[in-house]
Amino acid sequence: MLSEIAKIFQHTFKSVNSRIVSLPIVILMPHSACNCRCVMCDIWKDNADKHEFDIDRMEKIVDDLKKLRTRLVVLSGGEALLHSKIFDFCTVIRNAGIKINLLSTGLLLEKFCRQIVAHTDEIIVSLDGSETVHNSIRRIPDAFRKLKTGVQSIKQIQPHFRVTGRCVIQKNNFRDMANIIAAAKDIGLDQVSFLAADTYTTAFNHNTAELNLKEIVISKNELPEFHQILKNFFRVYKKDFQSKFIAESPDKMMRIYRHYAAANGLGDFESPKCNAPWVSAVIEADGNVRPCFFHASYGLLSSGGIGAIINSAYAAQFRKNLDVKNNDICRHCVCSLYFKHSLF
Fold it and tell me: What b/e sequence results for 31-53 when a residue is b if at least 16 CB atoms lie within 10 Å of its CB, and e otherwise?
């Protein structure tokens, strides 16, 4: 019976007009600026031209999300904690019965530790390596200490509050992978996950024509060393894979290696298993609504509510025609989402 229900639900994803009636996950960027200057991200370059939601727009968005039966809002950015009314937004969201995950650089966690515990359900912080490596990639002198102090402040208030780390593996930190695990445990994280750096799309404010790939991409000459590091990593941290302290499996982490091999012309890029455009949307601080971080915008919120935008003729046609396995942007994807609906 459940398998039949699953097939019916899957069919709604690929219906004739690809209409979405339920949007379980929404990534929301209430504030466009960032307080880091990361090597592999260019969001901070537009800090002077910042955008942010006001409370009226947030209330309208949440009204739409209730109609779309959204279950989780992920607050991203930029750095969402830079918004002066971020916890007012959280109140509006949670009053609608929607859970909140916060993506953060970690620099402001100590300052807002009590509000975070009171108004959100989980935090995902950026972790780039041991202290020296993390600071050099963030290009913020005291970033690691602030991250560590912030996480520990939250854990002092609520020891079981879930805080996980996400690490972008790239040229500047692949040799530091063993230290990343040690750092994650030292900080007090509950889990750490890994992904490759996006250097192909306009996500994260990238201007692909201006990206310094040599500063980010693991080079052809470095690939054998990276491969050996991964083999040692899988052996040394076998228990951490088994306990899921490391979120990915070794097989999935090898995809990071293959991604950089493909970037050096050694093999093909491969699409991940992903249904993001059918189960989620990204709402940017300027009002753009995207099917995911990487694909082009469906349109602006000013032209209608979220439901109208994600079910516009353009959006429906996009999903109907999207072949994740062969689409060029999907094949270069570094941050996929595969969500199993509650009917499964």
Answer: bbbbbbbbbbbbbbeeeeeebbb
Compute the distance between CA of residue 39 and CA of residue 206 in angstroms, rounded to an integer.
11
What is the C-alpha to C-alpha distance for residues 117 and 162, in angstroms, rounded to an integer?
Answer: 10
For the whole model, what pTM was predicted?
Answer: 0.88
Q: Report the alpha-carbon distance of residue 39 to residue 204 in Å, rounded.
A: 11
Contact 139, 38 (CB under 8 A): yes
Q: Which two tokens stand for residue 329?
A: 């942007």
Q: Which of 132, 68, 77 is nearest to 106 (CA)?
A: 77
Q: List, for residues 85-134, the tens digit of each pLDDT value.
A: 999 999 999 999 999 999 999 999 999 999 999 999 999 999 999 999 99
Q: Say how many residues make up the chain.
A: 344
* CA pair distance 235, 6, nearest whole angstrom: 37
